């Protein structure tokens, strides 16, 4: 029997243009040792600057879970790409950075902290929504594996269909099948819409749960 290969559906053209430039900067490899961060950490640092307006280096290191040297490298790359500037008061986005941040936020929500629910594994949990990416979810395994690689212990991927949280190949109404107070936060804070993918990742540490959620999201953007 002839085997058929699966091809992931594509996002609409132009949807990820804001992210493409950022990820190129994250993946730059120069001379010397490899940087101690990956795409999720780089993206989290950028989002932390965008949401904070002006952020000091020490605060940025805490928010992004990076060391001092890694923060310097991230800022150097953001400056070289024209996305950020660094002054005496801290780091802030340039006009190009603000435009990229706003475009990114149309695709991706800020990570949301969820106090240990039963909806995924891990004491510390983080969730986010990827707008219009539900059709890219096959069974959630790719997102889970990416989250675990980034430091999470597990992840659950939901697709919003007819206003309901669903699991591809599983539950068609997760709120009814798996009652939890967490659904209220997911709905009120992420404001998911039909066609969105919602990622919920867990770990023993909040930072790893957040990085896991961003890593999972990158498989859909």
Task: Briefly summarize what is shown.
This protein is an alpha+beta fold and 221 residues long.
Describe this structure in words.
The chain is of the alpha+beta class. It folds into 2 domains: 17-106, Orthogonal Bundle (Arc Repressor Mutant, subunit A); 109-218, Gyrase A, domain 2, CATH 3.30.1360.30. The protein has 9 helices and 8 strands. The strands form 2 sheets. It has a 5-stranded antiparallel sheet with strand order 4-5-8-6-7. Strands 1-3-2 form a 3-stranded antiparallel sheet. Helix 2 crosses helix 3, helix 2 (39-52) packs across helix 9 (206-218) and helix 3 (57-64) packs across helix 4 (68-80). The longest helix has 14 residues, at 39-52. It is globular, with a radius of gyration of 18 Å.
CATH classification, class level of the largest domain: Alpha Beta
Biggest sheet, spatial arrangement of strands = 4-5-8-6-7
Note the overall shape: globular
**Structural class by secondary-structure content:** alpha+beta
Largest sheet: 5 strands, antiparallel
Count the helices. How many? 9
What is the radius of gyration computed over CA atoms, rounded to a whole number of angstroms?
A: 18 Å
**Low-pLDDT residue spans:** 1-15
As a percent range, the share of strand residues is 15-25%
Which superfamily, in CATH terms, is the homologous superfamily of the largest domain?
GAD-like domain
Q: Kindly state the mean pLDDT as a whole number?
A: 88
Assign the CATH topology of the largest domain: Gyrase A, domain 2
What is the straight-line distance between the termini?
Answer: 34 Å
Number of strands: 8
Structural domain tally: 2
Which architecture of the largest domain per CATH? Answer: 2-Layer Sandwich
Q: Report helical residue fraction.
A: 40-55%
